[in-house]
Specification:
Blueprint (H helix, E strand, L loop, with lengths): L2 E5 L2 H11 L3 E3 L2 E4 L2 E5 L5 E3 L2 H4 L20 E3 L4 H11 L4 E5 L4 H13 L5 E4 L7 H8 L3 E2 H35 L12 H16 L5 E11 L2 E7 L15 H11 L3 E14 L7 H12 L3 H13 L22 H8 L3 H9 L34 H15 L6 E12 L2 E12 L27 E2 L11 E13 L8 H9 L8 H9 L9 H10 L3 E4 L3 E4 L1 H9 L2 H4 L1 H15 L5 H20 L26 E6 L2 E6 L8 E3 L2
Parallel strand pairs: 1-4, 1-7, 7-8, 14-15
Antiparallel strand pairs: 2-3, 3-4, 5-6, 8-9, 10-11, 10-16, 11-14, 12-13, 12-16, 13-14, 17-18, 19-20, 20-21
Helix pairs in contact: 4-6, 6-19, 6-20, 9-10, 9-14, 10-13, 15-19
Length: about 675
């Protein structure tokens, strides 16, 4: 009997079929000698909606909550029905299936949910691909995995789907109904990852809007010696400094100017150290999204779409949804082949001529590889003429972060001078490049980019960009000018899509509880490499956040209203991270998926009870003038604003048990 390869999408199927020699086109599949290759279009099945379990659940009411399916039902998507029938027929012709979907949790689910629906009993193998060029496909075909090894990924994906369904369906209904009871309109969408992410934006916006700049004062002295010129900055004595070492007293700074003006300073410390800066790592997806946002203003989903095209259509980068920034040591042997492909491009040839492909940077580390390795160029010769301008930019970024792994470290001399006049000390530091190393390949500070620290602090004073004069201890210099410089603390910048992705991944920095902080670090924050961009897109589409000047994100009034009304567990990123940790344990075969879903059912039930029993319906939402001043006269439950074909009316939240309604004035 033939062997069936089940792929994630048609383009992927064509690439694999070509290597297998399955070139004969059939309805919904390709065939060859003993080989059938078919495809899905992403997920062909989805969890059924509440009204599929009970038609009366189409109408939202508190009385129906919580909705907890038992058993769970999966439905074939209408738009996918024809292809699902094709796959179902093909399964009857084979006794072995090779899952060839994307090598991740969702890819596993796309294939196995079909096999589960059809109760297919045959043997399963797994094709684990990191790239879609011919060499990578052939290598993976020679090393098929037993299906049992990746089955836990499917268990985790199903558990994730059910947990998201429970939270999204139940809490979105509960808080929408509660908001309506306060006279508010629109759906208050709640999500397991979406809501903590939204809270990040709301909290940042409020921090900026409530920020009050703090003025502080620096004294800069311009010094001349026989060996050269430099500007040094006052070191504020501890007795005069705040907790951040700043002087808040302008008169004190002015007194320093009066004391030192025209005086001679003596060098009390002159230290020069040779320092090294290693090359940046190759990219995981979130770091690629952050860097592309920083350099080019690309959105998170835009970066993922571009990377997917480079991987899937052009086949010139490896799997883009990677959570690892490192490479397996075994892949170092393939470096000359990657170099050979890249050297066909004039823009890279000169850089490659200077590179040493025998070098092994810190990026080669088997201990830091999970299911995937970093995003790097493949051995396929790039046809840049067929790349869009944005694709070229992203590809170039990926290529350069690969090439720098074969360059020396960047070396520079760091010089720190401390000078003194009377009791006042001043300091200046400067850098001088010794060997540019990898910085020949990457310009790490894009031209025109505004630098800023997200904590609102100031960069260290006195950082010089040029070489300082080679002064020795006890040598002197004359102060030609001294002045007070008034500075102010700055609010952190608003989020961009790139920095929000970064914040989601590194949210542990915002959590104080040591155990939860560790959990967040271990799970790489909230969301996954594959889902973070989609979460931001969802928030944009639902009007919770908007884009200002294409790049900056701003939370809406609707978002702030929702975040204020929600209980802490729903919006707490630490709780979401604990869920992600559980899903990772399921994916590793260390935790039971059924028990995990049961725990989420209990959590949702408790949260629904808080909304409907332990606090008045509508509590947490600011009531509008249109809110009724009385509850339902029949059952005492809240009246909700509803809309019919003829206009708005007040209806009992106990519907359908209580059908009381009133006119809306």
């Amino acid at each position: 009997m033939p062997r069936l390869f089940l792929c994630e999408k048609p383009s992927q199927a064509r690439d694999i079929a070509l290597v297998l020699g399955a070139t004969q086109r059939q309805e919904g599949h390709l065939s060859g000698s003993g080989i059938l290759v078919t495809w899905a279009f992403g997920h062909l099945l989805a969890l059924a909606a509440p009204e599929d379990y009970d038609p009366e659940l189409k109408l939202w009411s508190f009385a129906a909550l919580p909705i907890i399916p038992d058993p769970w039902v999966w439905k074939v998507r209408k738009e996918s029905a024809a292809q699902f029938k094709v796959i179902a027929k093909l399964l009857k012709l084979v006794d072995e299936v090779v899952i060839a979907t994307d090598a991740d949790r969702e890819g596993e689910a796309i294939a196995r949910e079909i096999l589960e629906r059809e109760r297919w009993p045959g043997e399963i193998k797994r094709l684990w691909l990191s790239a879609l060029d011919e060499v990578s496909i052939q290598k993976a075909l020679n090393n098929l995995l037993p299906g049992a090894r990746t089955k836990p990924l499917y268990d985790a994906a199903v558990a994730r789907s059910k947990a998201d369904w429970l939270v999204g369906m139940n809490l979105s209904r509960a808080y929408t109904l509660s908001a309506q009871a306060a006279g508010l309109e629109g759906v208050m969408s709640v999500g397991r990852v979406q809501t903590p992410t939204l809270k990040l934006v709301v909290d940042r916006d409020r921090l900026i809007e409530n920020f009050k700049p703090l003025a502080f004062f620096d004294v800069a002295i311009h010094c001349h010696s026989e060996k050269g010129y430099f500007v040094a900055h006052w070191q504020v004595p501890e007795a005069m400094a705040d907790s951040e070492g700043r002087c808040l007293n302008k008169q004190a700074a002015e007194q320093v100017v009066l004391r030192v003006k025209g005086q001679t300073v003596t060098v009390v410390s002159a230290e020069t150290q040779l320092k090294q800066e290693p090359a940046p790592l190759t990219f995981d997806l979130s770091t690629l999204q952050l860097e592309a946002s920083r350099r080019f203003g690309f959105g998170a989903q835009q970066v993922l779409d571009l990377a997917q095209a480079l991987y899937e259509t052009h086949k010139i980068i490896t799997y883009p949804r990677s959570d690892a920034a490192y490479l397996p040591v075994s892949q170092h042997a393939e470096v000359p082949l990657v170099f050979q492909a890249l050297s066909t491009q004039a823009v890279y040839k000169g850089l490659l001529d200077k590179a040493d492909h025998t070098l092994k940077s810190r990026v080669w580390n088997d201990q830091k590889i999970s299911a995937h390795h970093a995003i790097i160029p493949t051995q396929k010769v790039p046809d840049t003429a067929h790349l869009s301008s944005d694709e070229q930019k992203l590809y170039d970024l990926i290529v350069r972060h690969y090439i720098v792994q074969f360059y020396p470290v960047h070396q520079y001399q760091q010089t720190v001078l401390v000078v003194q006049v009377g009791q006042d000390q001043f300091k200046v530091s400067g850098k001088a490049t010794v060997d540019p190393g990898w910085k020949e390949v990457i310009n790490n500070k894009p031209k025109g980019e505004l630098e800023g620290k997200e904590d609102g602090g100031e960069a260290e004073s006195g950082e010089a960009a040029t070489t300082l004069p080679a002064l020795l201890e006890q040598e002197t210099a004359l102060i030609k000018q001294a002045r007070v410089e008034t500075k102010a603390t700055k609010a952190p910048p608003r989020f961009t899509e790139g920095t929000l992705i970064h914040a989601m991944k590194n949210i542990a920095s915002l959590v104080e509880n040591p155990a939860l902080k560790k959990c967040l670090k271990d799970t790489s924050g909230i969301g996954t490499e594959a889902t973070r961009a989609g979460i931001i897109e969802t928030l944009l589409k639902r009007g919770f956040i908007t884009q200002v000047k294409k790049k900056t994100l701003l939370s809406s009034d609707k978002a702030r209203t929702l975040i204020d009304a929600l209980p802490e567990p729903v919006k707490d990123p630490a709780m979401t991270a604990i869920w992600e940790q559980a899903l990772d344990e399921i994916a590793q075969g260390k935790r039971d998926a059924t028990q995990f879903v049961l725990e989420q059912s209990k959590t949702v039930t408790r949260l629904i009870q808080q909304v409907t029993q332990h606090q008045p319906v509508g509590a947490g939402f600011q009531a509008t003038a249109a809110s009724p001043a009385h509850p339902c006269p029949i059952c005492s439950k809240a009246l909700l604003r509803r809309k019919s074909k003829t206009g708005y009316f007040w209806g009992c939240s106990g519907y359908p048990e209580c059908k009381h309604s009133e006119s809306y004035d």
